[in-house]
Amino acid sequence: MDDLDRRLINRLQHGLPLVRQPWQILADELESDPQTLRARVQALLDDGTLTRFGPMFDIERLGGAFTLAALSVPEERFDAVAAQLDAMPEVAHNYRREHAWNMWFVLGCATPEGIAETIRYIETQTGLPVLNLPKEETYHVGLHFSV
Amino acid sequence: MSDCISQFDGRSDLSRRLVELTEAGLPLVDDPWAWIAERLSISVEATLELLQALQADGAIRRIAAVPNHYRLGYRHNGMTVWDVDNAEIARLGPLIGSQPFVSHCYRRPRCEGWHYNLFAMVHGRNAEEIDAYRAQIRTLLGDACRADEMLVSSRILKKTGLRIAASAR
Predict the structure, then answer these.
(1) The pTM is what?
(2) Residues of A in contact with B23 (CB under 8 A)
(3) ipTM entry
(4) pLDDT tens digits, chain B, 169 residues: what are they?
(5) Using CB atoms and an 8 Å cut-off, which of residues 63-92 of chain B contact chain A?
(6) Which domains does chain B have, with CATH numbers?
(7) What is d(CA B77, CA A138) in angstroms, rounded to the nearest whole number?
């Protein structure tokens, strides 16, 4: 990763400007050219430094729903349950955390009913109760990692 | 929820199609708005207006690159959870959320087997860094907090980002 990559990653976390020629604006700011920048972003996606490039939606504002949920999975079944969740399109992220509730995941659905249905499905598939913790208030969302 | 939906009257179908089209990502092309416009069968100008309206409303936070924080050296993340006095949380939630080391901060329900109502995610390059952030939050909450824990992530099991497109079931 060189200096241009670092400046590009920092800049892109703030978002592409919604103007007619967004890549040209970025190129002017970073003293590069649009083709180089796009090739750099592609390389950073390919090597896993960036996980995604695109609109970051607040799904609830679009009528969708999501929630944070957790399972307390017996150690011997952990990988099998992780694989069950991995296969479900509604599961966006899933992390192992060191706690009695050891599997934490985010569910995203088109409707609130979809969330309830998905939780029932997980409980049926795994035989484990789901801890469902939908957010009641957002105090802050703003991930920025400077490199 | 109904408040949110009503804001998108007339635009909701287009918004939904935009989400389906781009939730996996935007292609790295010279003119991304033209790429979207073509697929939504609207003009480039209308596409840009739609994106601007959605961003102004908060439905699109931004069109951005999401870094893999593990790869950038932020290998430690702790979900700190706090049992905060109900009478104090409206005042303390925004204060904790405004700390520069907190990336996400929410109030969530207490339920059986879970009594923490304030969640604050912290990220750091080493374990000491996130321990220090937790200590700072504890100081800010003071007596309003009865108990807390930090759930450290030890493995990413899945990270695809939110999708709301129709699922298989």
Answers:
(1) 0.77
(2) 54-55, 57
(3) 0.76
(4) 333 333 444 457 898 899 889 988 999 999 999 999 999 999 999 999 999 999 999 899 899 988 887 788 888 889 999 999 999 999 999 999 999 899 999 999 999 889 999 999 999 999 999 999 999 999 999 999 999 999 998 888 887 766 655 444 4
(5) 63-69, 71-74, 79, 90
(6) 2-57 (no CATH), 76-152 (3.30.70.920)
(7) 19
